[in-house]
Amino acid sequence: MAGKNHKDKAMLTAAEACAMLGIKAQTLYAYVSRGQLRAETYPGRTGKLYARDDVEMLMARSRARAGHGPTAASAMRWGDPILDSAITCIQAGQIYYRGYSLRELLRKGFSFEQVAELLWSGELPLQKVQWSALPIDAGTPIHTAAPLARRVLHRLAHMALLDPEGQDELIDQTLKRARGLIRQAVDELFPGSASAPAAMAPRIADSIGWDQAEAVDAIDAALISSADHELNASTFAARVAASTGADLYASILAAVASFSGRHHGLASLEVHAFITEPPAGWSRKKQLSVLLESSQLLPGFGHRLYADGDPRVEPLLQKARALAAARKGEAQHWMEEIEGVLSLAKTMGCPLPNLDLGLVAVALALGLPREGGSALFIIGRLAGWTAHILEQRQQGFMLRPRARYVGRAPMPLNNGNP
Questions:
Q1: Which is catalytic among the residues 228, 303, 310, 388?
Q2: Does residue 203 fall inside a structural domain?
Q3: What is the mean pLDDT of the segment spanning 204-222?
Q4: Cβ contact 337:235 at 8 Å
């Protein structure tokens, strides 16, 4: 019986309910008598248990009466945290995955697979990890001009239809599918030969014809830096879907749909154009000046969470520089262009660069096409989405914020007309 050992997360003891509400037992009993709080008894247990969702509703009403409404509203716009999570910590301008510094994970050369397993389990594997493909024939990659996110949406939906046990919520099975999904995403966005390496970064490097160690290092760094970033828009979408009981496929589809917006996952397309397609006849200084004079942020610059700079950028720039130096040619040319933009932006007082610029730097150093930065981003972020889907399932409540109504006041109907 759930109530016997009090492992049912939907129920609370009287002491727990009182602590959450900040009230005495007499007030708790009054809520029950007024029908505002459900109480249940369980065989073999003394004392009643109280419905968590009723307690949370009472807490929300109390905060609203105390003027919490504006605070709650601001929380949805880069404000105060609204969910508990043990996955990613952003603190003092640094990022930590399950307590491990992202900067250190990159510096010590961990692979993307190792970091993904860390996000999922909380344990960092010390040996290289090999992932198996899903036993699903998902067909050949979609060789069309369709946007990247739509191709991934199509592939995920197709795989969901082919997987007869896709709604299995066991953690081991979910992770098995997640590993296979990431491999499928790599093969969709970076199609290669059947003999390609199993690890993701070497697999991508092999598909684009680069076998230098610098290429694999740069790809791993891009995937790891993209793997998670707390409660961003696509991750929140994944958690909302997971909170309703949606399976892994459906939850990730929700995330990819959010990722497909130009203000999120496809922002690097604008950065790529900014670097590679300056207006004809314009100097870089004029290009930046025109943008600044029109009160626009430079593509790939500025992040509201990092006043002192996005900590993901410099490691990616270092990898891109090493790769460009090894490859020479066009890679070196584009790296010099990026360095020039960074120098000008600094002298002109622009905000510091963000992840999108770092991803584009790596993509250009690798010789990837326009969507290369977004492709690396979405493959890496699949790991974070999976971690948050699992965590939301474990938390066991449905995400359902309220809206503050600001429309027309209610009015009576007279003969069907207002």
A1: 303
A2: yes
A3: 93
A4: no
Same domain? For 182 and 248 the reply is yes
Q: Choose the catalytic residue: 187, 206, 217, 356.
A: 356
Q: Is residue 5 part of a domain?
A: no
Considering the domain architecture, whether residues 214 and 325 belong to the same structural domain is answered as yes
The reply to whether 356 belongs to the active site is: yes
Query: At 246, is the secondary structure helix, strand, or coil?
Result: coil
Structure tokens at 313: 């950028």
Find the catalytic residue in 264, 272, 310, 388.
264
- Please compute the mean of the pLDDT values over residues 115-126 and round it to a whole number: 97
Q: In what order do the strands lie in the sheet with 49-51?
A: 11-13, 49-51, 39-40
Q: Choose the final residue of a domain: 27, 45, 75.
A: 75
Enclosing H/E stretch for 51? strand 49-51
Task: Report the C-alpha gap between 323 and 268 in whole angstroms.
Answer: 20
302 with 381, same domain: the answer is yes
Q: Which three-class secondary structure state does DSSP give residue 143?
A: coil
**Is residue 417 classed as helix, strand or coil in its secondary structure?**
strand
Residues 43 and 154 grouped into a single domain = no
pLDDT of 357 above 70: yes
Torsion of CA 293, 347, 269, 320, to 10 degrees: 180
Q: Which range marks the domain in which residue 58 is found? A: 11-75
Total domains in the chain come to 2
pLDDT of residue 415: 67
Active site residue 163: no
At 243 the three-state DSSP class reads helix
- Over 90: is that where the pLDDT of 294 sits? no
Segment of 140-144, 209-213, 214-218 carrying the highest mean pLDDT:
214-218
Whole-angstrom Cα distance, residue 162 to residue 219?
A: 30
Asked if 206 is an active-site residue, the reply is no
Size (the chain), residues: 418
Burial class (CB in 10 A: 0-12, 13-18, 19+), 347: exposed
Q: For tokens 């790529």, name the residue.
A: 272
| Whether residue 141 sits in one domain with residue 69 | no
Q: Domain of 187: which CATH number?
A: 1.10.230.10
- Residue 101 domain flag: no
